[in-house]
Amino acid sequence: MSKAERTREFIVEKTAPIFNVKGYAGTSISDLTEATGLTKGSIYGNFENKDEVALAAFDCNYKKISSYLKAEMDKHSSYKEKLLVHASFYENFFKAPFPDGGCPILNTAIEADDTHPQLRERASEAITSWKSKIMELIKKGIDNKEFRSDVQLEQTAISLIALIEGGIMIAKLTGKLNYRKLIMQSVEKAINDLT
């Protein structure tokens, strides 16, 4: 890795949590310089603009969550167990490995849906990828006779995502952690009902 690549990676790692907590609009250049200890010139010498830093920060936060979720699923052999990891994983979204601020997909989607087309597209791609991965798990579970053959793949996958993200939003908004637990129990029930 070149010095420039290491510097870019350093900037992204230091600023990703800030973007996830404050959002794009709320994150200032002084937040970036304070987090990195670099000058504005150094940051913009490595990134064209704040948009480019924000997109890289989203990718960093999303990759952390995706990698950890995959590692947890890899610990299980059945497709049902792999799907159930989603409920336990997202029930603990206030703890590591989640970046400060919680789920970057939810945070970015809420802020950028009407204000930042590039970030909105990035969050949309993340949802689409997540949906595809869940659909693949369900399909393999059907092929393996773990799930009913009449399960609607896309409907089930997007419904599970909506429950998870909605649960995170409601728990964060109200501060009532028991809501998160109740909704993740609904996610578990929906997965158990696939059999």
User: What's the domain count?
Assistant: 1
Largest sheet: none
Can you tell me the CATH superfamily? Tetracycline Repressor, domain 2
- Ends distance: 48 Å
Oligomer state of the chains in this structure: single chain
Hey, roughly how much beta strand do the residues contain? under 5%
Order of helices and strands: HHHHHHHHH
Pfam family, one: TetR_N
Protein name: TetR/AcrR family transcriptional regulator
Keywords: DNA-binding, Transcription, Transcription regulation
Keywords:
195 residues; mainly alpha; Tetracycline Repressor, domain 2; 77% helix; elongated
Structural summary, described in words:
Residues 5-65 form the HTH tetR-type domain. Pfam families: TetR_C_13, TetR_N. Keywords: DNA-binding, Transcription, Transcription regulation. Residues 28-47 bind DNA. InterPro entries: Homeodomain-like_sf (IPR009057), HTH_TetR (IPR001647), Tet_transcr_reg_TetR-rel_C_sf (IPR036271), TetR_C (IPR011075). The structure is a single chain. This protein has 195 residues and is mostly helical. The chain has one domain: Tetracycline Repressor, domain 2, CATH 1.10.357.10. 77% of the residues lie in helices and 0% in strands. The chain contains 9 helices and no strands. The chain has helices at residues 3-26, 29-36, 40-46, 50-73, 79-91, 104-112, 117-143, 153-174, 177-192. The longest helix is centred in the middle third of the chain and has 27 residues, at 117-143. The termini are far apart. The mean pLDDT is 93.
